[in-house]
Specification:
The complex is a heterodimer of chains A (263) and B (152).
Chain A: E1 2-4, H1 9-18, E2 23-25, H2 31-36, E3 44-47, E4 57-60, E5 63-67, H3 72-76, H4 78-83, H5 85-92, H6 97-102, H7 105-111, H8 119-124, E6 128-133, E7 136-141, E8 146-148, E9 151-152, E10 159-165, E11 172-177, E12 188-195, E13 200-206, E14 213-218, H9 225-232, H10 243-261
Parallel strand pairs in A: 1-3, 2-3
Antiparallel strand pairs in A: 4-5, 5-10, 6-7, 6-10, 8-9, 11-12, 12-13, 13-14
Helix pairs in contact in A: 9-10
Chain B: E1 2-7, E2 10-15, H1 22-29, E3 48-51, E4 54-57, E5 70-72, H2 85-93, H3 102-115, H4 121-127, H5 138-150
Parallel strand pairs in B: 1-5
Antiparallel strand pairs in B: 1-2, 3-4, 3-5
The chains are: A alpha+beta (263), B alpha+beta (152).
Chain lengths: 263, 152
Amino acid sequence: MEVITPRTLDEALRLKSERPDARPIAGGTDLLVELNFDRTRPETILNLAEVPELKGWVRENGSLRLGAGLTYTEAMAPELAELLPALAEASRTVGSPQIRNRGTIGGNLGTASPAGDAHPPLLVEDATVEIGSARGVRTLPLTEFFLGPKRNALAEDELVLAVRVDPGRQPQTFMKVGPRNAMVIAVCSLAVGIDRERGELRAAYGSAGPVPALVTAPLDAREDFPDLVAGASSPIDDVRGTAAYRRHALRVLTKRALDRVFV
Amino acid sequence: MKIRLVVNGEAREADVWAGESLLTALRDTLELPGSKNACEQGECGSCSVLLDGDLVCACLVLAAQADGHEVTTVEGLRSEDGLHRVQQAFVEAGAVQCGFCTPGLVVATAALLERVPSPSDDVIREELSGNLCRCTGYAKIFDAVRLAASRA
């Protein structure tokens, strides 16, 4: 087993193409658990924590580019929280301060858990994923990125570089159900936004189907929207909750979220 | 593999296994057993340390990722003048039962007071939510945090 630590993005992409089986690590909050519990022994670990191009966020022509290495703590900081309030709310529910200081948006996407907390707010924001490899850069709508539980659209030589969003259009919020407020994997989660420009209600759920998914409806469908969101989900019974409970919770959360954002 | 890092203000070198956590390196190689090993999945906070000043779970940091960085453990909080004011407050408030969670809570509290000198109870609750005390001695722990804050 070996750790390789590129210092530039070009070097990272070259290494990933030369060693496609290398497991990327950013904050390590997912991979270290697997390593500590002997669940994985990758031959190569690609340490992305020293790649400056993946860090932070920037404004680009009215859009925002969130580097894959953006931590939840950074997403909660006032300036970004004002631009992407639901993402900030979701970040605040991630683990604990210790986890939020390490865990990254790009890592959340890479792991592609149906319960990933950053996914619903980014889906509501119509985010696109910037994906890079030694072959070049491509973008993909986030709705097409999640393929199944812990499966995403990355080819083996590709890395998540950034998430792009065009914020400021919609009042929005995020909600999550779990046994306590900290250190909780979502039983189910929900982001809701109102996009007046498009005349759309937008909701995205997590932990209520094989992938986090987006549900939209016309603005005047407010009354039916809770049923629509619950009906669009496809939850399962598991250790954290039953399918019936998750559907019910999504219905309740959607109604609450709409009450919160319709002001 | 070899890593070089600054631990508690001192330049150190350690020979680590590639898949090893910073916690294992601190405890087994660098002979700093203050950070405790319990859940190994970031749930309990007993391994809390500062990495470049940020509070992290040492069990969730790859040792190799600490190469070239600065780590402060509970051992590093003490100065020549004696205990850190958070350590002293934990002693005086009786915020220690079995003691296993204490190093992590002390580091987390020190990090909190660095950013928020006089935290409200809600802020304390939120900021220490990643540190579990299985003796459930939270009332005394809160007393200790308030006491340490009052001595800034």
